[in-house]
Amino acid sequence: MAIQTHDELLTTIKDALQACGYVGELGGGSLQTRTPMTGEDLFAIEGTTKEQATEMIALADEAFKSWREVPAPRRGNVVKRWGQLLAEHKHDLGLLVQIEAGKSISEAEGEVQEMIDICDLALGQSRMLYGKTMPSERPGHRLMETWHPIGVVGVISAFNFPVAVYSWNTANALVCGDTVVWKPSEMCALSALGAHALLSRAIADCGEDQNISQLILGDRNVGEVLLDDPRVELVSATGSTRMGREVAPRVASRFGRYLLELGGNNAGIVTPSADLDLALRGIVFAAAGTAGQRCTTMRRLIVHESIADELVDKIVAAYKTLTIGDPRDESVLVGPLLHQGAYDDMQQALKTAKEQGGDVLVGGERVLVDDSEKSFYVQPAVVRMPEQSDIVHNETFAPILYVMTYSDFNEAIALHNAVPQGLSSAIFTENNSEAEIFLSASGSDCGIANVNIGTSGAEIGGAFGGEKETGGGRESGSDAWKAYMRRSTNTVNYSGELPLAQGVKFL
Ligand code: NAD
Fold first, then answer.
1. Nearest-5° angle of CA 270, CA 275, CA 280?
2. Residue-wise pLDDT tens digits, 12-31
3. Oxidoreductase: present as a keyword of the record (predicted)?
4. For residue 235, how far is its CA from the centre of ligand 1 (angstroms)?
5. Which CATH class is domain 6-262?
6. Which atom number of ligand 1 is nearest to the Cα of residue 470?
7. Does residue 473's CB lie within 6 angstroms of at least one atom of ligand 1?
């Protein structure tokens, strides 16, 4: 039996958006919203035209001229207030994320918690936009770096973290003195309206200019306006590698900056000394959680041959206990795939895996929930693969875990690094030297490398991002803020003389 009627679901959305402070219309527009939980259409909201998007960039560009003069700690007050409002409306925004991305409420609210955490971090950062002072080689000179805002930051985000990644970019960009134009995933426009409304309220409460934050709603066509407009100094784009391949050269052709957070193909290595019960829990959450729709989902498992059968049996047994269904049911652990396209991609990958020698040990089949043909739920799959196959080099955005075995540790590292993507990685081991090698320059080639933790579930304090086809960008904590600023190297001469660098003589 359905958990809510369609009308009740629409009321939940209206109430949540109203609570977040959204005051616009819901309906009568050209952008159809939908929920993967039931496959039903929701509201058709107003999309943004290219002309309107260009106007928004102009407004953000104009607002930048005064926002950059606002002292950074005062800019920090806006993200502080945003964080407070997000905490107050964690459940409201979490509901919208659940409805559009199909996550459990715990994961959806966890996503909002990440937003709150980055607001805390960015508030502190607003007092720590440090530049260095270096010793000058010339007497009576001071050499230093100062950091300045860059201008309009265009943020393009993916469906699977519809609001958190936006906040990583926006909280940092705002304290750095930039203004933000956001093009969220067209699959999650309602969540975007909620997150954006909360920021608008924070800006109003702090008495700052509303134009520092703009929202473009629509698909890639309207998003492309951000790529080509020279007023957008930085395009921070999160999504598939396919998207990154289109974005990077277009932005580079006008010498714009880009920050890319693209697809992952994350692996875990399990060595003979590993605590298998701990590894099991880490692997199942990372591989099957969020129905395999995290950029950090574990997609490959590389296990020592001496423990492979035992571990694989445990994983298969655990997969058979996973509850699959409507994520509004709190006992459910695995929610829906986004849409039929995601389901078809999964079936195609499983077919190819079998053709390449794979043995599907569990899963892959569709699970009908409430007899609905419009939603796409699946049993997460585990596939035993030979060491060499092409399919394991691809990211299929669905819950498929490919298991391979190794005999020698160097071989495990080589298998691990033999894919084009480089986002997240993990090793399960009690052997200190294996752990250290994995984290060393000859170990994992990913942006994130974990020991005795799965590949997913990063904290905002560390820089987040990956290498190779994942795009090389870093967002969130550590020194990721530097991507949103420009560096100026300054030399001040207080000597009264004019000595030239490198002892050069002239005049
Ligand atoms: P997607 O690439 O289909 O879309 C992402 C966003 O890019 C959307 O807003 C879309 O409208 C926009 N877009 C697509 N083509 C564009 C173009 N030519 N110009 C401008 N905008 C364009 O990705 P998705 O299906 O929403 O998300 C899943 C993918 O995102 C997976 O590959 C996943 O690994 C990746 N992802 C990566 C990270 C990370 O931090 N590395 C985080 C989340 C998701």
1. 70
2. 999 999 999 999 989 999 99
3. yes
4. 13
5. alpha beta
6. 41
7. no
